[in-house]
Design a protein that fits this description.
Number of strands: 11
Order of helices and strands: EHEEEEHEEEEEEHHHHHHHHHH
Helix content: 40-55%
Number of helices: 12
Shape: globular
Strand order of the largest sheet: 1-3-4-11-6-9
Structural class: alpha+beta
Length: 320
């Protein structure tokens, strides 16, 4: 990671102002004030891995607030912040929930007003990642903001260790490798949040948990050409009618979701140079299509290009 600011060599009376300027550039507009009288100390290190921005922050006690006014000054980049506590303790409030984060805890904040209080020994990783990647599987972020997942969760422990390790090797990663690792990292975050939500979510949000489990099952079984709504319902332990009702409440249809995920996965592989040696038919079969002609027809209906044209355009070759 690259150190973009450390207060060690800055005069005490200049530290906090420079800190605020750097945070504005990296994180975005926020309101901050110190919560004790000690000289401010802080360090910011940064790295971009695939479509994830990683910021490692060490700071003295601060109150950081995202207000409606600061939100209006931001460009909506479609991102959300995930905090991984490395040391110290912090407190956060968002969407009517208050949470305390200790070492190893993972928590989502962002997109709406929130408050974060850091301790004098606070160290954390701040991940800025695509909001869509979380909402595709977990539903709206307001369900799980300020909802910490602790290190006693195997998924959270694995995710925290993964990102700590990833932050140490960012300078040595090729762009393609970085992109793949970033996707793995997001999947780990999603899995750890899903595990916690399934255990402790209020009963009135039970349907959201079932949907996220069903979508995770689809992701894990995309290559199975027999995967259909009936098989998915059986895997969830529900009747097909009940699962359809839950999907309909979110404005979705089960079969449409499965086909969309197959097509998007195929599109990602066709645009990945690491899969450039694979025949298009092999990619189609790997995404659950059992017929090449059917795959080509549905792919063109979805993306406006044939699979061959899509791959050529994505990888910089001539479009047939």
């Amino acid at each position: 990671m690259r150190t973009v600011l450390t207060t060690e060599t800055i005069a005490p009376h200049l530290r906090f102002r420079l800190w605020q300027e750097m945070l504005l550039d990296r994180i975005g507009p926020v309101e901050q004030k110190q919560i004790d009288d000690r000289p401010f100390q802080g360090r910011i290190e940064t790295a971009d891995v695939g479509d994830i921005r990683i910021t490692r922050v060490a700071e003295s006690g601060l109150r950081t607030e995202v207000t409606p006014a600061t939100l209006r000054r931001r460009d909506d980049a479609g991102t959300v912040f995930v905090l991984i506590q490395l040391a110290g303790r912090s407190k956060s409030s968002q969407d009517g929930r208050d949470a305390v984060q200790g070492p190893g805890d993972i928590m989502v904040l962002g997109g709406r007003p929130n408050v974060h209080l850091s301790s004098h020994t606070d160290r954390s990783l701040v991940l800025e990642l695509p909001r869509e990647r979380l909402e595709d599987f977990l539903g709206p972020t307001k369900v799980y903001t300020a909802f910490p997942v602790g290190p006693t969760s195997p998924g959270a422990l694995l995710a925290a260790n993964f990102f700590q390790g990833l932050s140490e090797m960012t300078d040595d990663l090729a762009p393609e490798t970085a992109g793949r690792l970033s996707k793995i990292g997001v999947d780990l975050i999603v899995a750890s949040l899903a595990e916690r939500l399934a255990q402790e979510l209020p009963q009135d949000l039970y349907g959201t948990v079932i949907i996220q489990r069903a979508k995770a099952y689809v992701e894990e079984n995309l290559a199975d050409p027999t995967l259909d709504p009936r098989q998915l319902a059986a895997a969830m332990g529900l009747s097909l009618r009940r699962l359809q009702e839950l999907f309909h409440k979110q404005g979705q249809h089960i079969s449409d979701w499965i086909w969309e995920r197959r097509l998007r996965a195929a599109g990602q592989r066709l645009s990945d140079s690491a899969c450039g040696h694979l025949a298009i038919a092999v990619i189609a079969y790997g995404c659950g299509f059992s017929n090449s002609a059917h795959f080509s027809r549905r792919f063109k209906d979805r993306f406006g290009l044939t699979p061959r044209e899509y791959r050529s355009a994505a990888l910089g070759g001539p479009t047939p």
